[in-house]
Amino acid sequence: MRVFTNGCFDVLHRGHVELLSYCANIGEVVVGLNSDKSVKRLKGNSRPINNQKDRKIILESIKYVSKVVIFEEDTPYELIKILKPDLIVKGGDYLSNEVVGHDLSEVRIFDTLEGYSSTATINSLLQN
Are the C-beta atoms of residues 16 and 42 closer than 8 Å to each other? Predict the structure, then answer.
């Protein structure tokens, strides 16, 4: 089974790893990675912290990940149409019917791991 998830994965944390592990327990994990330009549009000019090449290499080094594909758009809709995954997995801050691609594939929501977010990590570093 091909499992798709996506995101910026700007500052990798335990919540990301738990999500990828969950996906890997279901099938082959393909990660859609927002490009640097896409992250800037979505998160602001101070992001990404890590460039897309570094983020891709880090994700590819995780044993749960089979493939990483960078996309330029704000959403991975066109990528999902091309990849045709059996399942899309997103974190618990989404509702199934709000997930991009819910009309193209089955969607499952992975419960967000409390206390873990890239934005919170970055804000904490800036305060110290």
Answer: no
Burial class (CB in 10 A: 0-12, 13-18, 19+), 3: buried
Q: What is the spatial distance between Cα 42 and Cα 57, in angstroms, rounded to a whole number?
A: 22
If one counts the domains in the chain, the total is 1
**Domain span including residue 58:** 2-127
Q: What's 53's domain CATH number?
A: 3.40.50.620
Span 50-79, mean pLDDT? 98
**What is the reported pTM?**
0.89
Looking at residue 12, the DSSP 8-state letter turns out to be: -
Looking up tokens 């590819």 gives: 60
Contact 69, 33 (CB under 8 A): yes
**Is residue 1's pLDDT more than 80?**
yes
The two tokens of residue 37 are 């330009």
CB atoms within 10 A of CB 8: 21
24-48 pLDDT, tens digit per residue, is: 999 999 999 999 999 999 999 999 9
